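Page 47, continued from p. 46.
Same chain as before, 112 aa.
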Amino acid sequence: MQVRAKKNLGQHFLKDEEIARRISETISAEQLPAASAAYGSLPILEIGPGMGMMTKYLMNTGRELTAVELDHESVEYLDKIYPGLNVVEGDFLKMDLEEIYSGPFALIGNYP
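Result:
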């Protein structure tokens, strides 16, 4: 199954494995300054995972992970490829994030 990027949603899919890994590592405790190391254990909210290029690296952190995706086709793809992933279908900009995490969390995505 392949997901087609939709211009009307402003989608662009990350395809470079090395870039995906490097972006994902930016929220690891080892990459954070000592004063911020506690953030390296917070749950993760990934915005717009698309086809899950970064998701696979984030799932390997051992931290709670929730992905928010607007595109229904991508949600179906993620559910199939990553059956244990908590995927929330919706517009991140219009969500009440306290419905997902009531406390602090780390936010990550491949933003344009």
